[in-house]
Amino acid sequence: MTYTMVWRPAREQEDLPDEPYDVWRTYEGDVSSSFHRIPDGFYVRFNDCGDFSINLTTREVLYFPVPDVPEDYSENLFSNQILPLLWTYDGMPVLHASAVVIDGGAFAFLGQSGRGKSTLAAAMARAGFPFLTDDGLLLEQKNVGFSVKPYLPSIRLLPDSENAVLGKTLADINPDDDVYKARVPSSDLIPFTGREMPLVAVFVLIEPTASQPTFVQLSQAAAIDALLQHSFLLDSRDKARVLNYFGIMAAVAEACPLIALDYPRDFSQLGSLTTAIAAHARSILDLSSKRCLT
Fold first, then answer.
1. pLDDT tens, residue by residue, 69-79
2. Are residues 127 and 33 both part of a single domain?
3. What's the CATH number where 277 sits?
4. Domain span at residue 13?
5. 204 and 251 assigned to the same domain
6. pLDDT for 249-282, tens place per residue?
């Protein structure tokens, strides 16, 4: 499962000779990343950030950064995007989600970039619920259910989130961070746990419309669809891998509830939001405990 990133000199991105077999898009519908096939593996482009040439045989990843992209941001692309793609390709499912620990169980926040996963993980950690991961949820199937593996003891936050969660002042914040998230290491303020934890439930962050936190459990079909939408699939046209992965996601949806979470994007309400999430998580734990006794 080990891959090595090899840095290459920075260069401007030129047009690629072939059409991508898959793309990722922003909220606005613009292409943010494209995926291409090469003889020994894959070529992944993050527009205006850098290119990764993946050799599956040597398990080596050549990285060509765009000039002036911060080194920390480049390392994040490898650790939070490329590695999860490769791990899923190798058979370890990874979701685009953060996770925290509440009363001994892992609760995940699943959603697209910008939905608030990192902010929620940091806010919950600040409220006393250690985080397991910020942006890559590594799952392992057990005899009963799934567990979440801890990954990277840091959270990447935009300046406004960092200010809201940690009380940073404008003077403490690098203006370049308006474009690139800052990596905030775990600390007494935002504790991290290095222990594998059982997955209890997944909160799916949806388009905000509510004036207060609302929780609605998804149907089995909607749950599987949400998991697939927020998965790290390197080759969506590899039918055998996709079929196997679909089976794993169906098992996840069967093992634990997926709950649509709608909440106002208002930093002043973070305290009440973390309280509401913790209370709902505990109600799920309580229900699970009662089921085990019947």
1. 999 889 999 99
2. no
3. 3.40.50
4. 4-69
5. yes
6. 999 999 999 999 999 999 999 999 999 999 999 9
The total number of structural domains in the chain stands at 2
User: Is 59 found in the same domain as 107?
Assistant: no
User: Which residue's structure tokens are 């998991």?
Assistant: 227
144 phi/psi in degrees, rounded to 5: -130, 115
Give the count of beta carbons closer than 10 Å to the beta carbon of residue 251. 16
Of 155, 181, 48, 51, the residue nearest 100 (C-alpha): 155
**Angstrom distance (rounded) from CA 252 to CA 220:** 10
Token digits of residue 153: 């003891």
pLDDT in tens, 181-203: 788 999 999 999 999 999 999 99
Q: What is the pTM of this model?
A: 0.90
142 contact partners, CB below 8 Å, separation of at least 6: 198
Same domain, 133 and 62: no
Same domain (yes/no): 182, 272: yes
